[in-house]
Design brief:
Elements (H helix, E strand, L loop, with lengths): L8 E5 L3 H12 L4 E5 L2 H10 L4 E5 L7 H11 L5 E5 L4 H9 L4 E4 L4 H72 L4 H28 L8 H16 L3 E5 L9 H20 L5 E9 L2 E8 L6 H17 L3 E6 L5 E8 L3
Parallel strand pairs: 1-2, 1-3, 3-4, 4-5, 6-7
Antiparallel strand pairs: 7-8, 8-10, 9-10
């Protein structure tokens, strides 16, 4: 069975009774559901209970002017898409209201009633187009989030297989080689080969663990981000050349592993770029909560954001921030380092 058609609902607000009736009748003749209000107060009261697809708003009402009414409706979160109706000489006010979000305006003259249906159709089409755009953007973000989540799950699966599967097998083989060396005590050449195999196996085990750690940088516990950033700073410090400090004045838990993973990757990318491309000597990673937001900050004293450094990782960091709903800001001064701040609204 075909879905029933719901005619668009329109609220007409005007304190000229005769014109109000004419506009309402003209729109009803086009098949719209029309409600009317003869004052700003009546319009506000009606909008408290109903949500039309469009409002036609007279700029000069007996109890309020158009801009003031629009501002009140915005504060009350009852403002709906609207078109302003204005008389001669009020074009400047109409332009001001357009800046407040009006879709269009129509003049009160002899052609008003004839023009009104076309103006309303155009405004409703604009509203539907905006809704479709918002829906498409939301769907794009959902699919992007889902694709990245699938990728993260695959990386976790591969990382677990490397660590628990291949890594364990290599460790078992190394143990067998160690035991075999005892049996080869009277055969120096064989013992030497077994010793070589053992060293190669130990190197393979280390590489396997590094690969697994790269695929799964942090765990899934709420404090995994904090622990991961602590380990990141420690790894940088063991390499020498740059000093990395992690500052977290109060414990910060991130229950969502997806969010924690992306925040860690942002920090990792920023720190690696500071070490490899900006020749930084000091790097500070700070994780805090402030003003109902989680804030991750990475600051270095390197050469600044060069063109090469900009292309290597900034786009990836911005993408990761966008996926989790965070805002990423970058400030840089030549030879004075880079500061990257990722701010995520706190929905705990």
């Amino acid at each position: 069975m075909a879905a029933s058609f719901q005619a668009p609902s329109i609220l007409v607000v005007d304190d000229d009774e005769g014109l109000l009736i004419l506009m309402a009748e003209a729109l009803r003749a086009e098949g719209y559901e029309v409600a009317t209000a003869d004052s700003g107060e009546a319009a506000r009261a009606w909008l408290q209970q109903h949500t039309p697809q469009l409002m036609l708003l007279d700029l000069k009402l007996k109890d309020s002017d158009g801009p003031a009414l629009v501002a009140n409706l915005q504060r009350e979160k009852t403002l709906v898409p609207f078109v302003v109706v204005t008389g001669q000489g009020d074009e400047k006010v109409a332009v001001d209201v357009m800046k407040q979000g009006a879709l269009d305006y129509v003049m009160k003259d002899t052609g008003l009633i004839d023009l009104l249906p076309a103006v309303v159709r155009r405004a409703l089409a604009s509203v539907e187009h905006e809704k479709a755009l918002v829906a498409a953007q939301a769907e794009h973000k959902r699919l992007e989030h889902e694709a990245l989540a699938v990728g993260e799950r695959e990386r976790h699966s591969i990382g677990a297989d490397l660590h628990d599967g291949l890594g364990q097998q290599l460790t078992a083989i190394e143990l067998i080689c160690t035991l075999a060396k005892a049996d080869a005590a009277g055969h120096p050449a064989l013992a030497e080969r077994l010793d070589l195999i053992g060293r190669m196996l130990r190197e393979a085990i280390v590489q396997t663990r590094m690969l697994a750690r790269g695929l799964v940088p942090i765990g899934s516990d709420p404090d995994a981000l904090q622990n991961g950033l602590t380990e990141l700073a420690e790894r940088i410090n063991t390499l020498g050349g740059a000093r990395c400090e992690f500052d977290c004045p109060q414990p910060v838990n991130v229950p969502d592993p997806f969010v924690a993973g992306h925040l860690f990757r942002i920090a990792q990318e920023a720190v690696n770029n500071a070490v490899k491309h900006a020749r930084a000597r000091q790097i500070l990673v700070r994780l805090t909560r402030a003003d109902d937001a989680l804030v991750l900050e990475i600051a270095d004293d390197g050469t600044g954001l060069t063109r090469k450094r900009h292309g290597l990782g900034l786009g990836v960091m911005q993408h990761r921030a966008r996926v989790i709903g965070a805002e990423l800001k970058v400030t840089s001064k030549r030879d004075a380092g880079v500061t990257i701040v990722c701010r995520l609204p706190d929905h705990r």
